[in-house]
Protein: chitinase
Amino acid sequence: MRLHQAILLALLTLPAAAQTTLPNKTEIIAYVFPKDRILAPNEVAATKLTRINYAFANVTDGKVVEGFAHDRENFAILNALKQQNPTLKILVSVGGWTWSKNFSDAALTKESRRIFIDSSVDFVLRYNLDGLDIDWEYPGLKGDDNKFRPEDKENYTALLKELRQRFDREGRRLHRHLYTSIATGASKNFFEHTEMAKVQHYVDSINLMTYDMYGGDKNTGHHSPLYEHPDDPKHVSSNKSVHNYLEAGVKPNKIVLGVPFYGKSWSNVTATNNGLFQSGAPTHNVYLNYGSIASTLLQPTSGYTRYWDATSDSPYLYNPTTQTWVDYEDAESLAHKTLYVRDYHLGGMMFWEYTGDPNNVLLDAINAGLRP
Structure:
C-alpha cells in the first residue's frame, strides 16, 4: 500500500479537527479566467483560497497590457474579496497558451527585459495587485506557433531574476511582499529548455501544470493521472513530473501541484478494459468542465458508468451504448493528490480553472485535504 493511501485510510477514522498536519501557508491557488465578462461579486469563494491568478494579461510591444475589456472591474471585484479573507493574494497571470508569442522577444536583451519589468510594476500598482505570474508556454519551444530561440533558456532565468530584484525594491517601498510565480510544463522537455534549479530562487511558487497529458490523442488516457499506469503508451503521470523537477534540483516547497477542473472525452471507443487505453477519436466537445460532467454524465440515467483506476488513482467514465469514454478529476482523486502533496511536502495545489467547478465540489475536496 502506498504511503498516501495508508494515510487516507487513517484520516477517515480521525475527527475532522485532527485531519491535517499542514501549515497554514500551504497554497491553494485558483486560476480565474472570466474572459470578456464581469465576475459576480460572490462568484469566487475567497475563504477557500490563498491566492488567485487572474488570467490573462497579454504581452504587446514588449509590455504587459490588459487582455480583456473588463479587467479593471474584475480586479476591483477580486480585491474586494480581501474583506472576507485579508490574507488572500491577487496576482495577474501573463501569457498562457495563446498569448505567449512575444515572450521570447521581451526576454531577449537587458533593455527588453527592463521594458517588460517596468510595465509589470506599472500594471501591478495600477490595479493594486500582489504580484505577477509568468505563464510562458514555453521557453525554447514552439508552443502555439510562437517565436522561440535557443537562448530562451538563459533569458527565462534572467527575466525572472531581474523581475524578482525589481519587485523586492518595490516591495520595500510599499512595505509589502510582491509575489512572483510561474506556470510550468509537466513534460521533461520543458525543464530541459529551462534552468529550474536557478529559476526556483526567483519565484514564490512553481505552478506545475500536471494536466493535458492526454487530449487530441488517437487513444484514450488519463490527462492528469497521479501515478503512471504500466499499460499507458505515453508513460505519463503527475508523480513522474514532480520527480523530474525534484531531480533537477527544485525544492519541494516551491512546487505547487496543478490539477484540472475539467475532463476530456473520446468517441468510437471499444468496451475492452472499459475503454481505458483503447483507440478512439477525440470528440468535438473534448473539453468538459466538471460542473457539466456532474450535472449530466454522472446522473443515473446518463448511460455512463464510473470506473476507478487504482493504479493511476484516477476515475473515468464509459458509455458502452455510445462508445464514449471520458477522463476527469473528482473529489476522490483530489483527496489522493492532497495526500501526495503532504507526503512530499510540496508547496500546495493550484487548479485550472475556477468556473469549471460551480458548486465547489472539487475545491472543497482540496480544502479538506490541505487545510486545518
Summary: Confidence is low (pLDDT under 50) at residues 6-24.
